[in-house]
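Need tokens for this chain, all 457 residues.
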Amino acid sequence: MERRYELRLGQMLAQAEVSPELMRGLLKRLEAFVGPFAGSLNQPEQRRHAAEYMTGLLSKLERKTGEAIAYLHDQERQGLQKFLGFVPWDHKPLLATLARQVAEDLGEPDGVIVFDPSAFAKKGAKSVGVARQWCGRLGKVDNCQVGVFMAYVARKGHALVNTRLYLPKEWAKDRARRKEAGVPEEVKFRTRHQLALEMLDECGRRLPHTWVAGDDEMGRPSGFRRELRARNQRYLLGMPSNTLARDLDVAPPPYSGRGRYPMSPFLRLDRWRAALPEAAWTRIDVRDGEKGPLVIEVVKRRVQARTETGGTAPEELLFVTRERQADGTFKHDHYLSNAEAGVPLAELARVTKAAHRIEECFERAKGEAGLADYQVRNWSAWHHHQTLSLLAAWFLDREARRGKNPDPGADDAATTAVDRRPDRRAPQGERALNAVPPQHTLAATKRTSQALSPPNT
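Here are the structure tokens for all 457 residues:
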């Protein structure tokens, strides 16, 4: 390993250390954090339940369900469960506040908005939107719910900022199931790409960005790319390797003297790529890795892709990356963009790596903020849980960045009740909140004993 990368690795490991002092005043910071979000709720009881639920999502509970969180606060489960699934409160103002905060803390002019569906495996047929569909978490078609998520990625950090539940056609057309699951009448069938566009229209202006990115599921439909062009959005979207495209940077076949002038043929991207000479590839260091620089090789071309109906899409920029794996083989990824042909290769590579950051967002939200731990069936409860989980994940992100750049004057001295310092050897997911002090306003319960262990669910 080169000396400069050894030094960088040492810096990265040092930043990963969490000092016990950084936990001082954590609950006071959480209380201040919840305030702007809970302020959009109408009733004091709703604001209290929102704080309690987020506290539970940030706790060390193994399963962060409404029932377990209620038991954590020594409460009957009905209160929190009604707040989650039956009390009518609008989650959208909370997400709007989240987007504003993310823009203020992380915003950069060349930020990247990333869209990605994520599935939640479920049993039975009662949970809203559940159906046999592709479940990436399991790597197969299975019974699950699918949410479409929007993330913001910048150099300073990345965070999930919005979500929509995908309602399959069979659900959208079934009045009885819709009524039982509380699906609002105004909700109609929307493709995953239409849901992404709705989120972009709703909060894209709040988030300074130059790019919209996503994987090959998002990039495959030409209609989605067309809608982004209509919105003057610059995109870089993954494409399946079997996509047909015509290379506009190679000379077409010679003219025979009769009929139309010939054009270059449409080829599958993987076959076109396999025919490239080695000299076509350019090496780029995209970032420092644990074992040295992360190097990829890239190539770009002007192309026209086939549409799903056999038509020809407008001119786009094809960007292909390859990365050598441990066994010596290459992993290839293909992207289409409406960026100008002169955009630097390094910029395109930056955006592809930024798009992958949404996976880190999911890891934090699911592993530490209970994103996938819910046990709810109706439409409101799903969106309420997801919203509060995104807020909890954003709090963790702010705490993590605070740990990297601590401000010794940022916190008041912690009292004995508030200063709950976790074992530095504890897993990351257990660091946030190891206990909820009864006299703290976030608890707001008549706590007379230690938190009950959640039941086995």
